[in-house]
Amino acid sequence: MRALDTRARAVHTRAALKTQNPLPNKEMLILGIETSCDETGLALYHSDDGLLAHELHSQVAMHEAYGGVVPELASRDHIRRILPLTRAVLARSGRVPADLDAIAYTEGPGLAGALLVGAAFAKGLALALGIPSIGIHHLEGHLLSPLLAHGAPQFPFVALLVSGGHTQLMRVDGVGRYALLGETLDDAAGEAFDKSAKLLGLGYPGGPAVSRLAERGRAGRFSLPRPMLHSGNLDFSFSGLKTAVLIAVRAAPQDESARADIAREFQAAMVEVLVAKSLAALEATGLQRLVVAGGVGANRQLREALDAKAARGGFGVYYPEPELCTDNGAMIAYAGALRFARGEGATTSSFSVRPRWELAEFERSA
Ligand code: KG4
Ligand code: ZN
Fold this sequence. Notes:
Elements: H1 14-17, E1 29-34, E2 39-46, E3 50-58, H2 60-64, H3 71-92, E4 102-108, H4 112-129, E5 133-137, H5 138-144, E6 157-162, E7 167-174, E8 177-183, H6 189-199, H7 206-216, H8 239-251, H9 256-285, E9 289-293, H10 300-313, E10 316-318, H11 329-341, H12 359-362
Parallel strand pairs: 1-4, 4-5, 6-9, 9-10
Antiparallel strand pairs: 1-2, 2-3, 6-7, 7-8
């Protein structure tokens, strides 16, 4: 899992990642900047040539000792990384700042201080270059990221957005045309993975660690709830599942095999609920394409279960490239390109960040 890799990396598979989603004819080179949480992500997206380069610095190692993200440390680290990573994406694609047509940055939601680093840098560079900048909704970045992959889906589709902060099912009819179908009433799916990982004595972030431990576990020894499986709507709830993990951990022998068995059951419960609700969303909308985005979308067991259902159920399931499931600059550059193509973007010096950014505002162009 790339989140454990703290070295900056780049992707050279430009052809492989070239989007099949048509942009208008106007040629554009967009710098994308993601700093909403604990990854500094920079990317260059070209309207004709696709993703030219993306670089990521994960702060996971720095936050690991604290068992979660420390906002002040996150902001300071973004400041350290943002300029070298910008230089790196430009150098890797043989471009210079003057080649940029616009700069996209994550405006929210996320950690206020972390967002401010990206926004201030984007605005400063855009002003210096005399080009527009645009604030992107982080979830819109995730939502559109599967369009960067090979065999990208056509609109409309259902999107299952499963990250550390959000769990939502949406109907997506086009760029900016998002209708919320259902969401979590409490913890997000990634949060449930992270909290359960902690209870199981695993590190942060918990998703990949739980997934790995679950592979060694046996089925049938523990029984955990499938919250809201039969609720009759498309909402989720995961805080009870986390509490059930806590109770199981306390009652079970303190050994590796018990922990693996609990992880397996937790993983199975998460997958069962996410798959069932996604299928229900397809049925409710009558759509035949499901897009999975956000960090939990990297989960192997979830992908296997959805692929198996899709093979039998006559619908298509689409994922971002695995390394673009979790936070990255490429999805922000791409969302920026789509928005610039629609004439959005500002050259004013004022800017804001939106640590809390509701879906209603998110649908600004719906
Ligand atoms: O989208 P993301 O990188 O950041 C947010 O916007 O929140 O998602 C991070 C979340 C974390 O909770 C992490 O534990 C989870 O995604 N995650 C996974 C996996 N990889 C990352 N959860 C389950 N299985 C994975 N393989
Ligand atoms: Zn995210």
